[in-house]
Amino acid sequence: MVSQASHPFPYADRADAGRVLAGALEGYRGRQDLLILGLPRGGVPVAAEAAAALDAALDVVLVRKIGHPRQPELAAGAVAEAGGAAAEVWNEAIVRAWLSSAGPRGQTDLDAVLAAERKELQRRARVFRGDRGVQAITGRTVIVVDDGIATGATMRAALAAVRSLDPCRLVAAAPMSCTAAGSLTAAADDVVLPWPDSGLPAVGSAYRRFGQTSEAEVRMLLGIT
To answer: In what residue span(s) does the Phosphoribosyltransferase domain sit (predicted)?
Structure first.
């Protein structure tokens, strides 16, 4: 089920979107086990607003796209990390097409891209967690937050990583989606989208101000000095 809320769109900025999302997530307020995980970088300002409004713990779930070896903008899959555990999600059709056409080096080239993205994932984990370690996920109500859903591949990878750590309830949440987000309903126990199926061409179109979120801003929002 996709939850919905009323709001004059587009959003002013990510903080505005986070407050609206918090309203749509009001039913989760008061749960002692509540944990909100933001997707860096743009999802963290949204998640931080929601966490503050719902009095929830805040952490990150990290995702990197695994680009096609010859077409990096084409997602062959994604690798994600949450709570110290990693998970991979693959676009099987793209991977099969690549391996059938690339010859003997096809798997080697794909493995090289995956290794590079895993290395970047580890770097980001150090940057965005510092020395504070990870939040426990097992047995908790976990809400995964991004600033918008385009294809859903990034969110699905994040959900897969979190699901592997056995939360008692897993929620996918974002202020908007470009298209119908039906693919998320199989990956999460609840999907919360104040502005679902917007028909917009990109996530940034849902915001009047949609600048880049810096690593320094993410660290500040997470309380890392």
So the answer is: 22-175
